[in-house]
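Subject: Interface between my chains keeps coming out wrong

I've been trying for a while to get a sensible model of this assembly. When I model each chain on its own everything looks fine, but I need the whole thing in one frame so I can look at the contacts. Pasting all components below, labels as-is. Any help appreciated, I'm running out of ideas.
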Amino acid sequence: MTLLAVENLTTYYKLKEGYVRACENISLQLKQGEALGLVGESASGKTTAALSLVKLLPDNAHVMSGSIRINGKEIAGTTEEELRRIRWKEIAIIFQGAMNALNPVRRIGDQIVEALRIHEKITDKEACRRTAELFEKVEIDPDRVREYPHEFSGGMRQRAMIAMAIACNPKIVIGDEPTTALDVMVQAQVLQLLEQLRRERQMGMILITHDLSVVGETCDRVAVMYAGKIVETGPTEKVFDEPAHPYTRALIAAFPNIEGERYLASSIPGNPPNLLYPPSGCRFNERCLHAYARCREEEPLFTLLSSGHCASCHLLEGRVRI
Amino acid sequence: MGLIGLAILTFFALMAIFGPYLVSISTLTVDGVTKVMHPPTEGFWLGTDDLGKDIFAGVIIGSRVSLLVGVAATAISMIIGTTIGIVSGFYGKATDALLMRFTDVFLVIPWLPLMLVMAALLGPSLGNIIFVIGITSWAGTARIIRSQTLSVKERPYVERARAIGSGDTHIMFYHILPNVFPLIFANTVLVAAVAILSETTLSFLGMGDPTQVTWGMMLHFAFAMGAVSFGAWWWLLPPGICVVLVVLSFTFIGYALDEVLNPKLRRRDQ
Amino acid sequence: MTGFAQTNNQNLLRVSNLEVHFAVRSGFFASLLTKEVALVRAVDGVDFTLGRGEILCLAGESGSGKTTTGKAILRLLEPTSGEVFYQDEDIRLFNRTRLRKFRQDAQIIFQDPYESLNPRQTVFATVAEPLEVNHICKSIKEKEERVEEALNDAGLSNPRELFMRYPHELSGGQRQRLAIASALVLKPNLIVADEPVSMLDLSIRAGILKLMVDLRDNKGISYLFITHDLSLAWLVSDRIAIMYLGKIIELGNADVVIKTPLHPYTKALVSVIPVPKRVSLLGKTLLKGETPDPVNIPPGCRFHPRCPEAKPFCREEEPVFREVASNRFGACHYI
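Reply #2:
Try treating it as a single job with all components included. I did that and got this:
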C-alpha cells in the first residue's frame, strides 16, 4: 500500500545571483509502516526535499515541478488552506533541533494541547487527557505535563517533540536529524522509541540524517542524496552490503566497523559543488575516483541492480564491475 | 535609505569643507549699509539678520563649526565609551561592577541639566562645548559595547587566543575590538547625530561661544532678536532645516548600517 | 596503526586526583532568598598518564567531564585540586613566564571549525599569531616560512595562495586544518583535540583523523583525544578512558576495552555502537534515563541508579579506580 509517492520533485532557491538547484528530480516511495532514510551530507538537498513535501520552505524557495501523492491523492498543487489541513494531520515534521523549538515560557503540556486543539475540535479536558496519554506513549511521566522546557533534559524534550508530532495521528512522520546533539545512549533510546511507535501505528517515516548509523538502526530502505540528487536507493541491507554508487561506497567505507579491521579510510577529495552552478553531467564527477569523459558530459540514469535497489552511475550500465 | 543619508551628509560635508572659501566674509561684517532683517534678495539669497549679516553665508560658515563640534565630541565620546565597555566586559567581576556603577551615574543624570551646569561652570568656549558633549554621551555606548564584549569573549576563538599564550591586552585589541567594531561604527553614527543636536541646543540656550558662527548660535540670535514676531522666516528656517537634515542623514545611515549588521533584519535571500 | 614506538617510558603527562568544581547558583529564586550555592563537580578525581607519541582518548557522554578535563590540563580552566605533571613539573605551580612556555608545548583544537577561528583574521594572521604573541620569529621572511610549513603539515596544499583568504572562504574541513596548523606552528608536544571531527561531514572526517595520526607518527605529538563517538575512539586511539560524571570508570588499550568491556557502563556504551548493517534496536536492552546533573551525583557508585548489574553494596560505597588486570583500570566493585 503506497502511502507516499513523490515523482520528479524539483525545488530551487532564488538568489540575486541566480537559482540554487537545491533538489532535482527527486522520486521516492513510502509504504505504510515503512521507514525510509534520506541520507546525505550538508547541502545535499535532503532537508529541502522533505520540507517541499509540506511546502514549509522559505519565501525564496520555489517548487518547480513534481507530483506528490498521499494515498493516491495529489497534493502538489493544492492551496495553502488545504495544505494547512494536511500538515500535522497527515504529515507531521520533527524539525532539526526541535528540542530547542519549544516555547520556553509555556508549559510543555500546554503546547501540545494547543497543537491538538488547532487541528481537532475537542474540548480542553479531552486535549489534556490525550496529552497525558501521549506522554505515557513516549515514556515520560504524565505528571510532568505541567513542567517547563528547561526542566526537561535534552532527550526528554526530543520525546516531547515526538509526542507533539504524533498527537494528531499522522500517516507520515518526517524526522529531520532527530537525534543531533543527543548523547549516544539517549540517541539509541529515541530511535528505539521512534521505531516502536512506527510499528504500533503503522506510520510511514522518513528520517533525514547525515549519520549512516541512524539509518542502519531504524530504516527499512535508504535513499542516498548528493548535491541535490538521489544517487542510490534500495533496502538498507543491500545498500550497506553491496553499495553501487561510488559516493555510497565511499560513505560506507568511512563508517567505522568495530566488527572488522581497524583502519582509516581516505576522505573523499574536494568539496560538494556549489548548487548555483552545478557541474555538468554527473554531479559527483569532480570528486569521483572512477570518473571518465562521459561522466562530465552526460547525467547518468538509474540502473536497476536488483529488486528495489538502483543507483545512477554510468559505470553500472551493463553492470560493469567497478 | 542609507544612500539618501549618505548623500545628504556628503553635501553638508562638502559645504563645510569648501563652502567658506566660496563665500566672501565681507557679507558677514556689519557695515551699516546693508539692509537689516531683509528677506531673500539678489546678493543675499537667504536674506539678512538684524545686523545686516548675510544669512546664506552664515549657514555655510556655520556648517563647518557645527559639524566640527559634532565630530570632535563624538570622537571623545566613542573613545571613552568603547574603552570602558571593552575593559569592563572583558575583565568582569570587580572591575566590571566598578566601571558599570560609574557608567550608571552618567547614564542616569539627565543630560541637558548636566550639560547646562557644566557649560555654565566651564564657560562658553568651543573647546568646552566639545568637552561637555563628549563627557555626557559616552555612557550609552559603554553599555552597548560591554554587552557585545561579553558575548564575543565567550567565542571559542578567544579561548584559542588564550591557549596560544596571548596576554589580555592583545586579546582585547586584536580579537575583541575588531569584532565589536561594526557595532561601534553603527553607534558612532547615532552618537554624532546626538552630538550635533546637543551643540545646537546648547548654543540656542545661550551656552555657546558667541564669537563663533554656528547654526545653534544663529537660532539663538534669531529668537533673541525677535525674528519670530518679525516674521523673519529666512532667518529661522535655514539653520533649523540644516540641523534637521544633518541629524536625519545620520539617522538614515544608522538604520542602513543596522540592517547590514543585524542579519535578522536583512531580507531573506540565502 | 602503531607507527611511533614509545622510545622511553617517561610519561609526558601525569594527572593525579584532578578535580574541577564550579560553584553555581542553585536556581533563580532560590538564589535570591538564600546564599546557597550548588557545586558542579565536573571533574571529580581523575588519574591517568599520557606517554610520548601516545593517543589517549577521553570518551564519554555529556556531563562526563571530558572536555573540562582537557581544558584543565592546559590550565584554560583552573583545577580546583589535584596535580598535573607535565614532564614531571606540576603545572599548577607555573608562574606566568613558565606557563607561557608551557602553552607553546601544549595546544588545543576545538570542536567547531566555524567558531574557533576569528572571522576577521586572514589565514596567514591566524597561523602567525601564535608566533607573534610568543615573540618567536625575527623576520617576516622567517614568519612566512613557518606559517607555510605549518599549513603544509596540516595538509593544506598551495599554502601561499591561502595566506590572504578569510575563514569563511574555506570549507569546514579546510578550516579545521587551519586550526590544526595554528596549533602546529608552535611545534607542540601535546595536543588536546576536543571533538575535532564531530561537526564535519562524514566524508571529510577520515582525512582529519588520518592527519592527526600521521602527525603523531612523523612528529611524535601526543594527543588527548576527546570524543563521545566510541567507534572513532577505537579507530584512532592507543588507549581509551571512559568517563562518567566526572570520573574515569574504565581505562585500557582501545581494542581491548571495546572488544571486551568490563565496566557495566562501558558494556552499555559498546552495545549501542552502530555497525554498517541493518540492525534493529527493538529488543535491545538500553540503559534507562539519562546521565544525571553533575550537581546531584548519586551516593556510592555514581552509576548505580542506572546500572543493570547494581547490587546493594553499590549504593553505599564508591568504588576505587584501580588496576584490575594488566594495564587495565576500572572503578567498579565487581570487576
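Reply #3:
Confirming on my end. The first helix of chain A runs from residue 46 to 53.
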